[in-house]
Design brief:
single chain, mainly alpha, 8 helices, 73% helix, disordered N terminus
Length: 171
């Protein structure tokens, strides 16, 4: 298997992430908009998409704020193109409102350092504290179950990380 240079891998991930976010924004725009409102808002969304694609994040955030657009897509794109370290977790993941996205990044993402991995797991566990299992509570809501499963995965990752470090680092 051919090795991809880490910087090129990050750029590839970033480009795929931006493309995915652009498609999601376009689909949401097309599905949720109608009539004159659609035509006026469409221009705003595409302007924001262009700013995100050009990685002009500060301009995209200001544009979103000025036109009362959701800034989550800008923050998601910034996260996907970031180093995914502790600072980025605090700057981006902690302010993104889409909890399903944040949890998927905490569960599926791999940080560049041990501290970043720990911070990502801790952030995911913090988000899922309200979804702990309880014997007295039985809920059939699928999103709650997805969050509970994400919590279980994060707990397993934390245990695996501790075991790995204990074996390999003598802790």
């Amino acid at each position: 298997r051919a090795m991809i240079h880490p910087i090129r891998r990050q750029q590839l991930t970033c480009n795929i992430g931006i493309w995915s976010l652009n498609m999601r924004i376009i689909n949401l725009t097309l599905l949720n908009c109608a009539g004159a409102w659609y035509h006026s808002q469409r221009g705003l969304f595409f302007k924001c998409i262009r700013l995100i694609s050009d990685q002009e994040y500060q301009a995209a955030l200001e544009f979103s704020k000025r036109h009362r657009l959701d800034k989550d897509e800008v923050l998601k794109s910034q996260w996907l193109c970031s180093a995914r370290g502790i600072n980025e977790i605090k700057m981006f993941l902690s302010v993104i409102k889409d909890q399903a996205f944040v949890l998927s990044e905490c569960v599926d993402g791999v940080g560049p350092t041990e501290d970043a991995v720990r911070a990502s797991i801790a952030h995911g566990l913090h988000l899922t504290n309200q979804y702990r299992f309880s014997e007295t509570e039985v809920d059939e809501n699928s999103q709650i179950w997805e969050f509970r499963l994400a919590r279980l995965k994060l707990l397993q990752f934390r245990d695996k990380l501790e075991t790995f470090l204990g074996i390999n680092m003598g802790r």
